[in-house]
């Protein structure tokens, strides 16, 4: 196998650690997208949507986005982000960072619209605001799901990269020095 390929390998432990971090983040994002609901059990906007709950969605989404961006920035600072496989992973992480950053403003706008809904007096205005809330909240949740998908794809890229490791001996065997030669015996016969 080409020695250049071996030099470009992301260390196995680093790869496994990053896959675990991506999987963990992916689950958090999917859970948030599923749990953060706007509509009630009947599929309608509640008569009085709770601003505090909706703005909390924005705050939590911003926290998740921060974690995704930080993970992306940390990987971008590694030497591995510039090789072929690392660049593919970085592209997926970049998409995840972008998508995650779009979610929080949509959640915040939904919360802001909930306040406007309370002041609306005409039925047509209420209907317009409710529709705006539904679209904004659904869009924010979609961004969380798309972020999760991008993280999943980054983990797949890393998984494929791990498959290449099997063609090379583990680093501990390659890098461990050969045992010193036995010393000549000082006993005379």
How do the helices and strands line up, and which of them pair or pack?
Elements: H1 3-7, H2 12-35, H3 51-76, H4 84-119, H5 123-165, H6 171-175
Distance between the termini: 50 Å
Oligomer: single chain
Radius of gyration: 26 Å
Unreliable sequence segments:
none
Mean pLDDT: 84
Assign the structural class, choosing from mainly alpha, mainly beta, alpha/beta, alpha+beta, or little secondary structure.
Answer: mainly alpha
Listing every helix as H and every strand as E from the N terminus to the C terminus, the arrangement reads: HHHHHH
Strand fraction? under 5%
Please count the beta strands (DSSP E, at least 2 residues each).
Answer: 0
Shape, principal axes of CA atoms? elongated
The number of helical runs is: 6
Helix coverage percent: over 70%
- How many strands, which pairing sense, and closed or not: the largest β-sheet? none
Question: What does it look like?
Answer:
- With 189 residues, the chain is mainly α.
- 74% of the residues lie in helices and 0% in strands.
- The longest helix has 43 residues, at 123-165.
- The chain is elongated and about 70 Å long.
- The model has no long low-confidence stretch (mean pLDDT 84).
Q: Quick summary of this structure?
A:
The chain is mostly helical and 189 residues long. The protein has six helices and no strands.
Q: Could you name the key traits of this structure?
A:
single chain; 6 helices; 189 residues; mainly alpha
């Amino acid at each position: 196998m080409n020695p250049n390929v071996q030099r470009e390998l992301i260390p196995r432990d680093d790869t496994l650690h990053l896959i675990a971090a991506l999987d963990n983040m992916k689950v958090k994002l999917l859970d948030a997208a599923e749990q953060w609901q706007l509509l009630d059990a009947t599929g309608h906007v509640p008569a009085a949507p709770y601003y505090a709950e909706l703005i909390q969605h924005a705050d939590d989404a911003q926290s998740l986005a921060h974690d995704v961006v930080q993970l992306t920035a940390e990987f971008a600072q590694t030497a591995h982000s510039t090789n072929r496989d690392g660049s593919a992973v970085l592209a997926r992480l970049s998409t995840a960072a972008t998508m995650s950053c779009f979610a929080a403003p949509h959640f915040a706008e939904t919360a802001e619209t909930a306040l406007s809904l309370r002041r609306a007096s005409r039925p047509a205005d209420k209907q317009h605001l409710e529709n705006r809330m539904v679209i904004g909240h659904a869009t924010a949740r979609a961004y969380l799901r798309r972020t999760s998908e991008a993280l999943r794809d980054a983990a797949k890229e890393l998984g494929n990269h791990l498959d290449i490791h099997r063609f090379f001996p583990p680093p501990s065997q390659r890098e461990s020095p050969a045992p010193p030669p036995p010393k000549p015996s000082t006993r005379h016969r």
